[in-house]
């Protein structure tokens, strides 16, 4: 038999496969709270403008409340034949309260209804992710303060470059995550317009009050063009692109944790709580959570690209293609939620190995730049010349199999006669770190101040 919600002109019901490919109830039930909230706002507005009586409104409010309870306690009879969450709830309402329930869909279409519900859902998800991201930033800043002076090797090209502090490295991620928060907030602001009342695509002939429903649902204003409102999903794409970038940041940190925890680096240790063993190799401690966070970024970027590809080339206004907007958004939200929580756990859990970090920080002639800078400062050599002189000294030390600091003053003077013993003061890891006092540099005093600034800011809001 035909669908009771729209079957008036249909003689027969859909093929089994038609039903199956058409139904979204399997995944869009997640929108039930938003759907009820949207219907309540719509019904109150209909009553306000005289399209429903007060008795009808009271019945609708009570009916929707009961339906919410049914869904919450698992007794709601979800039906695939009713396609989606919107028709499931509306049909159940009529079943429970009769005629009044059948009036709810006045001046409304599923097209503006789903666009409204989905915006409400994404808005709430943004708020959740913002809170989680800030919690991770707090964890990173806390560890950064703890390790503001702990030397670690700074890399470029994954080759030891110059010493930095572990705190400085962790705070780099706090900066990245702060920009992710900015993008989330920005996405939220732009999506916060109400499509409700756009109806199917052209607006409605009923004297509705879109300002009233927009306000009731916490939107800043109603959308200004009904075609745009039911057809575009750029808010979901913006959300997914923001999540893709945030996941990319987490993935980079995850990759670093994998490296640091490897035997070859030996820079940090994760506790038993954040490692797994091997079913064959008894000695193993694998950083699976970090690897999964690294992988989730691929999945989230795929969700973004998937929806972008669905939307590309869709003519205005609504087409059923748009129903495919939900799964990528739900999937990416879940993946990032897990990733943020796992990353916060690992950041709190990990313990650096200070001796190993310090040893690596000074390896590979990591203070060669400090030597070149000394030649510029003390002998007034042009930097390019100083670079060349230092290169010759590195090459000499390499030939001897020793560090720069192990060369004698005579060795040095053979390359540059004006060098004095003062040069040895700048060749230690600690001296190198302490000298990097330029704004944003890695000097421990800078890092300590930055960590405190972040903690203050994060605790203030
Ligand atoms: N389940 C649909 C969706 O997610 C609701 C809108 C259906 N509209 C329509 N004209 N068939 O997009």
UniProtKB/TrEMBL annotation:
Its main location: cytoplasm. It catalyses: 2-(N(omega)-L-arginino)succinate = fumarate + L-arginine. GO terms for biological process: L-arginine biosynthetic process via ornithine. Keywords: Amino-acid biosynthesis, Arginine biosynthesis, Cytoplasm, Lyase. GO terms for cellular component: cytosol. GO terms for molecular function: argininosuccinate lyase activity. Pathway: Amino-acid biosynthesis; L-arginine biosynthesis; L-arginine from L-ornithine and carbamoyl phosphate: step 3/3. It is an enzyme of class 4 (lyase). Residues 9-302 form the Fumarate lyase N-terminal domain. Its EC number is 4.3.2.1. Coiled coil: none annotated. The keyword Lyase applies. Residues 365-434 form the Argininosuccinate lyase C-terminal domain. InterPro entries: Arg_succ_lyase_C, Argininosuccinate_lyase, Fumarase/histidase_N, Fumarate_lyase_CS, Fumarate_lyase_fam, Fumarate_lyase_N, L-Aspartase-like. It is found in: Cytoplasm. Belongs to the lyase 1 family. Argininosuccinate lyase subfamily. NCBIfam families: argH. This is Argininosuccinate lyase. It comes from Oecophyllibacter saccharovorans. The gene is argH.
């Amino acid at each position: 038999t035909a669908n009771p919600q729209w079957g008036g002109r249909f003689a027969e019901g859909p093929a089994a496969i038609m039903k199956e490919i058409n139904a979204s109830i399997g995944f869009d039930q997640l929108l039930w709270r938003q759907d009820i909230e949207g219907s309540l706002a719509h019904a109150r507005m209909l009553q306000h403008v005289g399209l429903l009586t007060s008795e009808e409104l009271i019945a609708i409010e009570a009916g929707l409340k009961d339906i919410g309870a049914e869904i919450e306690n698992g007794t709601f009879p979800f039906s695939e034949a009713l396609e989606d969450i919107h028709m499931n709830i509306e049909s159940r309402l009529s079943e429970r309260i009769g005629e009044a329930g059948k009036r709810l869909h006045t001046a409304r279409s599923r097209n503006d209804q789903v666009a409204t519900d989905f915006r409400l859902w994404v808005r709430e998800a943004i708020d959740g992710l913002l809170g989680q991201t800030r919690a991770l930033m707090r964890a990173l800043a806390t560890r950064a303060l703890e390790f503001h002076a702990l030397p670690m090797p700074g890399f470029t090209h994954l080759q030891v470059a110059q010493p930095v502090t572990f705190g400085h490295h962790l705070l780099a991620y706090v900066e990245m995550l702060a920009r992710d928060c900015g993008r989330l907030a920005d996405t939220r602001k732009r999506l916060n317009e109400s499509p409700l009342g756009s109806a199917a695509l052209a607006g409605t002939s009923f004297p509705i009050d879109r300002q009233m429903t927009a306000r009731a649902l916490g939107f800043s204003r109603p959308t200004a063009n009904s075609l745009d409102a039911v057809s575009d999903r750029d808010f979901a794409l913006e959300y997914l692109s923001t999540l893709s970038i945030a996941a990319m940041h987490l993935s980079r940190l995850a990759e670093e944790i994998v490296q640091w925890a490897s035997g070859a680096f030996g820079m940090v240790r994760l506790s038993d709580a954040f490692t797994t063993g091997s079913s064959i190799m008894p000695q193993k401690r694998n950083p699976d959570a970090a690897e999964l966070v690294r992988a989730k970024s691929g999945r989230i970027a795929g969700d973004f690209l998937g929806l972008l590809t669905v939307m590309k080339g869709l003519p205005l206004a609504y087409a059923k293609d748009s129903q495919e907007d939900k799964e990528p958004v739900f999937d990416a939200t879940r993946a990032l939620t897990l990733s943020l929580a796992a990353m916060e756990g690992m950041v709190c859990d990990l313990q650096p190995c200070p001796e190993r970090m310090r040893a690596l920080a000074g390896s590979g002639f990591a203070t060669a730049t400090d030597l070149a800078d000394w030649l510029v400062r003390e002998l007034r050599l042009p930097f390019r010349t100083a670079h060349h002189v230092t290169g010759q000294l590195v090459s000499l030390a390499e030939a001897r199999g020793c560090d720069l600091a192990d060369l004698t003053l005579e060795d040095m003077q053979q390359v540059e006669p004006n060098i004095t013993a003062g040069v040895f003061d700048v060749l230690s890891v600690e001296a190198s770190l302490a000298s990097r006092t330029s704004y944003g540099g890695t000097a421990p005093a800078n890092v300590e101040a930055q960590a405190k600034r972040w903690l203050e800011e994060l605790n203030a809001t």
